[in-house]
Fold these 2 entries.
Entry 1:
Amino acid sequence: MAAKKSTKKPNVSAEELKAYYKDMLLIRRFEEKAGQLYGMGLIGGFCHLYIGQEAVVVGLEATAEEGDKRITSYRDHGHMLACGMDPNGVMAELTGREGGYSKGKGGSMHMFSKEKHFYGGHGIVAAQVPLGAGLAFSDKYKDNGRVTFTYFGDGAANQGQVYETFNMAALWKLPCIFVIENNQYAMGTSQQRSTSSAEIWERGKAFGIPGEAVDGMDVLAVKAAGETAVAHCRSGEGPYILEIKTYRYRGHSMSDPAKYRSREEVQKMRDERDPIEAVRSLLLEGKHATEDDLKAIDKEIKKIVNASADFAKESPEPHLDELWTDIYATEVPQEA
Amino acid sequence: MAIEILMPALSPTMEEGTLAKWLVKEGDTVASGDILAEIETDKATMEFEAVDEGTIGKILIEEGTEGVKVNTPIAVMLEDGENADDIGSASSSATPAEEPAKAEKKEKPKEPAAEGHKQPEPDVTPDWPDGTKLKQQTVREALRDGMSEEMRRDDSIFLMGEEVAEYQGAYKISQGMLDEFGNKRVIDTPITEHGFAGIGVGAAFGGLRPIVEFMTFNFAMQAIDQIINSAAKTLYMSGGQMGAPMVFRGPNGAAARVGAQHSQDYAAWYMQVPGLKVAMPYSASDYKGLIKTAIRDPNPVIFLENEILYGRSFDVPDLEDYTVPFGKARIWREGDDVTIVSFGIGMSYALEAAEKLADEGINAEVIDLRTLRPMDTGAILKSVKKTNRLVTVEEGWPQGSVGSYISSIVMQEAFDYLDAPVINCTGKDVPMPYAANLEKHALVTTKEVIEAAKKVTYK
């Protein structure tokens, strides 16, 4: 059983590194734009931004194969972009428009993509954990070699259903990677004030589930740990836990003033541990890219994000008849 | 081109706020993520961050200004190479929330008739053709046969729950199923309702057809978040992309002398939820026909059984593939004087009362709803228009009962046909007591149904 923070670094090509930079930057810029549209009243309700945590999903998606599944909580925009969902469809769902992934009926917290094997977007803290194990159960039942990435936060890690699920996942050797995105705050309550264990992944030991802590501000460390976890699950040995230590720069949701931590704490993280800046330095120092190359990427990302905002503003509101559709299925949606 | 910075909305309900403090001044260079200002909403003081890079060209709203409306320009930012002369040409960083292209506003959404209560003529075709060979079976056997037939047909169907496999079912419903289907498809779970209900829903998302057995529906309260929030709502929230085709089943309602925590009827609870279907059969043939329909249904179905009924025998048609459609009531007894509507074990009281009423010359029409969602309100209305009187019977509590819903439908749709107020016979408004005499009194009784029928017929 692995016991320490992963220090493994995978060998990645310059092209891969550039791709991670681009994917993380897309999430960052997309979320900033979402924050801006929220400020303008175009996005309503709750809106939980992923800024600061980008390396987690980008590092893990780099280890996924076609057909692998993913499911997460309500802080879900980053996961959707990282698994290849269309930014236009995500942004239009945020604005509640017809062109959104759920035709405007789900919103920020409830989006899905059958095509990309993204199973939500769940608004009830930790409810996605047994659901993710259930997805893994279906893969094991079909014996198709697929794995499921089940993401949840340090706050969700104190819900009882997580441990009910750990027990059954271990008992039935489900191919499920439990990804604890530990951003250190369950809304406004710090880990120290809410959680008896300093290392949450160690709780898996009680169920015989191996795991490790991972530096979530380092996309390469996340990728390396992800590879270990995926290999373990795919070989039929059952679940694996990754506790990825990360940090969210913004409040819990748009309306959170974040008074439970100091501005200095956030600024220090941004200045010293920013996952995007880290890859940027690697690219420049390794001479894998020039400032101009990166500027070109920045420009390209800005274009994609602005286009998504335009699409999300221009897409019409759903037709009123949509109120009454999708309550009952008339045929079973077939699993791709 | 210079960019206008607008007063942001920083909570779901904010319309205006106070610009408490500027943290930048004119001429400062800012990067995306830098804090520009502190803004007071009705709830809190929020930090407002820059989205774009540039230089603060001009501050338009002084700090300390109260009542600044959302989307009012509060500053102008200059991009690379611009100077103060460009301020005049400022455009909003994005156009403020203009009215979105509205869907035809005047049009009222069309409520599909099938989901509402405005049902067409009820389907009164017999459940099986005349001359069909019948056999006597207990509810328990019929239920097992129904599940087993479906599992033979489709190997994506599996059964999971506490004691369903090696123990052969806590109430012996799954007797023999482990032997036939093996432990891949008949799965003992730990005692962990919330967890295994969620795993079942996830497996349904993943393309399987789970049957999740709760040892009793009393324990399903531990799992109700997964049933309602995950199973019932996902199809809608995903815009039709994915849902949970599955069955949650198990005994519901009072058994005998098991006290308050094991004796609740959940019919009215589940019946309220869009996205769920709810069946609550009475006879063995309906248990068999409805469980097969429930398993084939592409939606989450709540299948409410009854422990006392498990051992009762009924005629079951000896057909290769016998199914009963949802939303079709069964008329057990025809009559002209009063309509008695019930479902599940409530039918025992309804039928017994009807028999005794007949001895006194009152002919009751007895309707078994069989499914509560969809509900065959058409059958109720048709009968009430004939008898002009209605009594409903259920074991559940009175407030927010199935009967109170039926009463409201009948009042709206057949008010002029009623010759007496509708009476709802329900369980008493108390937690279930343990003492034998108290328990008997807490349940609905045949005597109460007879009295209600006499009251509405003024006899």
Entry 2:
Amino acid sequence: MTAQDIGVFVFILIAGTLGTDIWRWLGVFGGKQLSEESEALVWVRSVATALVAGVIASQVLYPGGVLAGTPVTLRIGAAAAGFAVFLLLKKNMLAGIAVALAVLAIGLHLLGI
Amino acid sequence: MTDMLPEQSRRYWFVQGMKGLFSLPGFILMSAFVGFTALAFQSGLTRGEAAFLTFFVWALPSQMIVVGAISSGMGVLAAFLAVSLASIRMTPMVAALVPEIREKKTSSALLIFLSHFVAITAWVYTLKKVQDIPREGRLAFFAGLGITLTLVNTAIVFGLYGVVSQLPPIAAGTLYFLTPMYFVMSIWESARQPVIYWALALGVIIAPASHYVAPQIDMLVTGLVAGTFAYVIDRSRRRRAS
């Protein structure tokens, strides 16, 4: 059942709200047994990070809207330039984000978008 | 503060919590939600859907997954699993927060209600401040902070949706990019274990393959394959080190 079949709001409540709040509720009750250092939690954290990394990659590689028709090399280049600056300037997020967005904006401008 | 009645003290600390909106983490979060508004619009969500999603999920990674799931036609069960895998981290977060802020007479129902407002910004901020707050003011402080952050950012999404939808394409496209860039850098910056770097790198590398092989459930495949792979690499590294 996709969002189209059951409606976007129901989809959000089941996948989004329930999928997130269940874990918050569990924390109110039995969460103490789940140690931050346990092997299971290291795996969970690793899977969660990879999952979000995959979502980030999809947003760059397969964007919707106005970026959909733009060259993938521009989007990867902008993201890579921003991340490189972020690392070079000792994890300066503001600088990294600014460079990524600036490279993308200049590229879009040169493409006449 | 010691001469205040508990009721006055609670009101005072609720308002102190609300003021957290104007902190640096508060501003960073609001900027991220401006970006999320553009992402939601460009991905085809309506204004009401985007605001509803923000209030009733209140966790940006989950929200990104839901947006991706809706636009790619993912099934609700697979989306629920993907959101769950990204949200298990909430359990130890809430479990660490609750003993710090609850009083003996605090009801479980109230804690369940307030737990919805736990997300990384309010969590870090509350745990940092909690030592300087008297016990009876702590729950109120968190409630003031968490509820304010949630409501204001929901209002940002609702209010700016109209603005974002009118932006020239170059500005809209650039704003869309804010969310992925913000996320990849904030995960890298806040990583406390090497496994996070591995998971991030492998997730990005494996994502196109998952998209090609299993477009309907690509997020789940990427998370499980890259995450498990990163975990195995990290574990063998730790074993060698010890």
